[in-house]
Design brief:
Radius of gyration: 20 Å
CATH topology of the largest domain: D-Maltodextrin-Binding Protein, domain 2
Number of helices: 11
Helix content: 25-40%
Order of helices and strands: HEHHEEEEHEHEHEEEHEHEHEEHH
Strand order of the largest sheet: 1-6-2-7-14-8
Number of strands: 14
Number of domains: 2
Distance between the termini: 44 Å
Structural class: alpha/beta
Shape: elongated
CATH class of the largest domain: Alpha Beta
CATH superfamily of the largest domain: Periplasmic binding protein-like II
Largest sheet: 6 strands, mixed
Strand content: 15-25%
Length: 311
């Protein structure tokens, strides 16, 4: 890695993200301590004191047990993955640790395949999940869901965004923006952005469909395109690997309400006696500096929200 230039380094980092997301490289059923301290990752919850208002909402059996379990698939940088030393890391890991700390509990991280999480919750095998799960009508029938951040799509730009590009305003009109074939950004979002430009008498966005993000990063560095429109976490994680190669524009894409929201939710079994306590712990975390720190750790600052809304 040290012999590669900055664009290649960032491209390789994002290629790893995409490869892990596609294949799910970790085995199901692994248990890992949520309070591990190693040189690979710092425990963001170290020194965080319990929130007594949240603790009061805990059911007695959980208080006596002293542990809360979270299910997630540790195969998706930068939100949940295993470091080379087999230590859980990522934004969802940080948030889960903070929730446990606010409740005065130890955290047990269960590394399981995503498809098994909801059956595991409803079957009582896990207490909650923080795993980039969005609210849907079918999920809300069997789960209590608490908003904790906003995922979405962002614009990768030249370092420092010298052109001040914003995917949500006219600064993007007439620009050459890379998208990946088959991605939502290529099929749905960028055409809407471009139509908004032409409807206001400005030039259309020039969509440049490239085969992969590596190609897009190379073209951005050489000036052949002005930006890359892609998933926020993947762009942010790659940028964190080498911030000198490119940046992520501050504002995420504000998609029309008809396309749903980008809110991501913690989930518990429907009617769980833990729901109110976890909601209070999440709100307490949002109100603390550690919430923005957790987002910043992984380049996800644009995903901050202020209300841990239930259902």
């Amino acid at each position: 890695m040290k012999t590669r230039n900055k664009v290649q380094t960032a491209a390789a980092a994002l290629a790893v993200v995409l490869a892990l997301s596609a294949c799910g490289s970790t085995a199901a059923g692994t248990t890992a301590s949520g309070n591990s301290k190693t040189s690979d990752t710092a425990d963001i919850s170290a020194g965080v004191q319990p929130d007594q208002n949240a603790v009061k909402l805990l059911p007695d059996p959980i208080k006596k047990k002293g542990t809360i379990s979270v299910a997630m698939e540790l195969a998706y940088p930068p939100t949940s993955f295993l470091t080379p030393s087999n230590v859980p890391a990522g934004f969802n890991v940080d948030i889960s640790r903070l929730i446990a700390a606010r409740l005065g509990l130890k955290l047990d991280i269960q590394n399981v395949q995503f498809a098994t999480i909801i059956p595991g919750l409803t079957g009582g095998r896990y207490d909650f999940t923080a795993t980039d799960m969005s609210k849907t009508a079918s999920r809300l029938k069997v789960l209590d869901m608490i908003d904790y951040w906003k995922d979405g799509s962002s614009l990768g730009v030249k370092t420092g965004n010298p052109e001040k590009l914003d995917i949500n305003d006219s600064s993007i009109c007439g620009k050459s923006i890379a998208v990946l074939p088959g991605a939502t950004q290529q099929q749905t979002y960028l055409p809407l952005v471009s139509t908004k430009c032409t409807d206001s008498g400005k030039p259309a966005v020039r969509a440049v469909v490239l085969p992969n993000v590596n190609a897009a990063l190379s073209q951005l560095a050489s000036g052949r395109i002005d930006g890359i429109f892609y998933d926020t976490p993947s762009l942010a994680y790659a940028a964190k690997q080498d911030g000198n190669a490119f940046s992520v524009a501050a504002a995420q894409y504000a998609k029309p309400a008809s396309l749903g929201t980008d809110l991501v939710a913690i989930a518990l079994p429907k009617g769980s006696p833990l729901t109110k306590a976890v909601q209070a712990a999440m709100q307490s975390t949002m109100d603390s500096p550690q919430y923005k720190q957790a987002l910043a750790n992984w380049g996800l600052e644009s995903g901050a929200i202020t209300d841990a809304k239930l259902n």
